[in-house]
């Protein structure tokens, strides 16, 4: 019997993309999963799509925030309801490749890894490949402070080792904060060196606005980690340098 994987998905006005994201979960070769979706008060047709899926597949469970609270709160609500040994993350505009769960759970169990991530591709709104992300083979706490090399859509942690770990209650950089929390208690997070997910770049996403990214990262160092200005500037300089290098982003022809 395979271990249950709890998949955490937040939604907010995601009607244009969430169907494909959920389908990529349903099409997994690994059958023992539950998809826990918390909607953050969408005003479009997102909820109708979610309810249709839930009606046809009992592994899909739908929740809703009482007020618009951000993706971190939505994810934590889903984590609170999770029953699985493994916790994995997928946003409502991203996609998994069919063997993602099968390969990643085997990788973690074979090596007794607490936290893992994978390579992934970047796609545009039409689904065309725009780049490939190849993160380092492993990362520890101090190195992750310099650059968040763990793509949230690829991350998975094992609650049998870490317990159930929640995202800190911050609006931005919740994923990086979560990986840092886990890495405080383990030596390394490990990369499965296969491209097993697709990250959709959007014109309105935070990741499409470089200045907002830099501001939120500085704010993360100063106001979440409470680094003094010198320490924050030290890590921020690494972050900017590595962002420019894009940790081995290979543009597609």
Which terms would index this structure?
Glycosyl transferase, Nucleotide-diphossugar_trans, 23% strand, globular, Glyco_trans_2-like, transferase, Spore Coat Polysaccharide Biosynthesis Protein SpsA, Chain A, 253 residues, alpha/beta, 9 helices, disordered C terminus
Q: Span between N and C termini?
A: 43 Å
General shape: globular
Output the helix-strand order.
Answer: EHEHEHEEHEEEHEHHEHHE
DSSP E strands, number: 11
Radius of gyration: 17 Å
Reading off the top of the CATH hierarchy, the class is best stated as Alpha Beta
The profile of the biggest β sheet is: 11 strands, mixed
Mean pLDDT across residues: 94
Number of helices in the DSSP assignment: 9
Q: Briefly note the CATH topology name.
A: Spore Coat Polysaccharide Biosynthesis Protein SpsA, Chain A
Into how many domains do the coordinates divide? 1
Which architecture per CATH?
Alpha-Beta Complex
Domain Glycosyltransferase 2-like: 6-132
Pfam families: Glycos_transf_2
GO molecular function, one term: hexosyltransferase activity
Protein name: Glycosyl transferase
């Amino acid at each position: 019997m395979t271990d249950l994987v709890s998949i955490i998905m937040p939604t907010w006005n995601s009607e244009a993309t969430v169907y494909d994201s959920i389908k990529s979960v349903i099409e997994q070769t690994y059958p023992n999963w539950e998809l826990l979706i918390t909607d953050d008060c969408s005003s479009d047709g997102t909820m109708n799509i979610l309810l249709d899926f839930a009606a046809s597949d009992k592994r899909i469970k739908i929740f809703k925030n009482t007020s618009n609270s951000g993706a971190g709160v939505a994810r934590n609500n889903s984590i609170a309801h999770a029953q699985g040994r493994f916790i994995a993350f997928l946003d409502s505009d991203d996609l998994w490749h069919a063997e993602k769960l099968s390969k990643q759970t085997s990788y973690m169990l074979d090596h007794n890894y607490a936290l893992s991530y994978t390579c992934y591709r970047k796609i545009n709104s039409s689904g065309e490949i725009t780049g490939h992300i190849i993160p380092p083979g492993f990362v520890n706490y101090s190195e992750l402070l310099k650059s968040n090399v763990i793509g949230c859509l690829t991350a998975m942690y094992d609650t049998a080792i870490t317990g159930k770990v929640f995202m800190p209650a911050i609006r931005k950089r919740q994923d990086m904060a979560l990986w840092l929390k886990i890495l405080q208690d383990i030596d390394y997070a490990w990369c499965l060196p296969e491209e097993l997910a697709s990250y959709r770049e959007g014109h309105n996403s935070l990741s499409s606005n470089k200045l907002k990214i830099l501001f939120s990262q500085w704010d993360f160092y100063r106001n979440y980690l409470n680094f003094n200005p010198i320490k924050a500037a030290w890590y921020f300089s690494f972050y900017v340098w590595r962002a420019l290098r894009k940790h081995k982003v290979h543009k597609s022809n």
